[in-house]
Hints:
This protein is an alpha/beta fold.
Amino acid sequence: MNDISKYLGSLSFSVDEIGAKERAAMLASRSIKNESKVEGLKLAISMIDLTTLEGKDSEGKVRAMCRKAVNPLPGNKEIPHVAAVCVYPNLIKVARECVAGTGVKVASVATSFPSGQYPLKLRLEDTKRAIYDGADEIDMVISRGEFLEGNYQLVFDEIRQVKETCVTASEQLSSKTGKAVDAHLKVILETGELETFDNVRKASFIAMAAGADFIKTSTGKVQPAATLPVTLVMLEAIRDYYGETGKVIGMKPAGGIKTAKDALAYLVLVNETLGAKWLTPDLFRIGASSVLNDILMQIQKQKTGYYQSADYFTND
Length: 316
């Protein structure tokens, strides 16, 4: 596909905003009890992209976060490791060293995160360097200003070129090291800046058609970040794109997901919209920095009958 305008012209992007909000609220109100709740919380842990994206990030902080990612609750082997750690590009090598051989992937933001305002050449070089430094996954941001001005072809072309860079860099690194590399691309829409649900649906289709492996709500730097209604709109876009093309695309809400209750609500949303096939870390991620401890506290509550103090859990 080269001309995105023809493709978009064949689709409907009208979203019933009130209906989406009501359905999301209804699904979020469902109660999950006892063993099902514990299993749901463990599943949520396995889907977390444990993230630190702050100006004060350091090698020490990333190492501590990686230890938490690999072994969220020391002494409890029933708790799975998280899906990935997500860091700035300059800390990829540190994260790669810390999680090597554990099954935890390394994700990195790229393409001038969070603004996406650098020249494309620099954004592509940023992507290539991140993969060469050891990133398994690239979280890129779209050009929201161009999208809002209606420059959909430019947005499509930029995503496609970042995807092509992921493929080319993966192939080059595989050839160089003799180890298979397949860097996946998550496309961040920054839904808090897209203004309407119709725009969220349209941006989702553009990203998927351009080659996104995942579509992602937010950078976490803009409010509102992830919300259940916006996530529902994106999940429905994934469902419709799958029905149209047969291509399976992943989903990642990020930003503002702070409690175990929040995490379970997103799992319900995925199950009811896309089905159990998507309830795997390969197709659903939760981008968060603080939700892990609340989930661990809830699991301990289910096991012992009482809450442990937050002081019993590490902050990283």
